[in-house]
Amino acid sequence: MPQTPTIPGLATTDLCDAHEERLNAGELRVLHPAFKPFGKRARFAGPVATVRCFEDNSMVRAVLETPGDGRVLVVDGGGSLRCALFGGNLARLAGDNGWAGVVVNGCVRDVAEINASDIGVRALAAHPRRSDRRGSGSQGRVVEIAGVRVAPGDWCYADDDGILISDHRLD
Fold this sequence. Notes:
CATH architecture: 3-Layer(bba) Sandwich
Mean pLDDT: 94
CATH superfamily: Ribonuclease E inhibitor RraA/RraA-like
Radius of gyration: 15 Å
Distance between the termini: 26 Å
CATH class: Alpha Beta
Helix content: 10-25%
Number of helices: 5
Number of strands: 12
Shape: globular
Strand content: 25-35%
Largest sheet: 10 strands, mixed
Structural class: alpha/beta
Oligomer: single chain
Number of domains: 1
């Protein structure tokens, strides 16, 4: 089973305090505070991979089937609250493949299964309905979540205080 690197001691509050000049320059960005925590990992960080999809999680599965190598998958689901883009099966897949975490601008389901998985997840809400599977979506592109730009290769830092996106690794 792939090992996911841990980045201990990096609190988002401390990162904001230590890198205020990057915040002011837009090199460090804070996602809106609407995301809820799921999964066993309260804190996670890693380089970003991106998926853009709307009510279709086919591309999410395809990306999570690849080695995560400690990355964080940021899923821009357009903020839809009409179905889930991530669930228990994908949480196990992500953990088994070495992903550090998943941030979903949309919903998750199978919350008990996600919470039993050794992965960090942030999402807007839980929803019992699964998404469509039409094979649509894109990966590896710049996405925008509530006005915050997220690009592949950026760094994501998440904990109980929030989610940061940085142009560069901060530790």
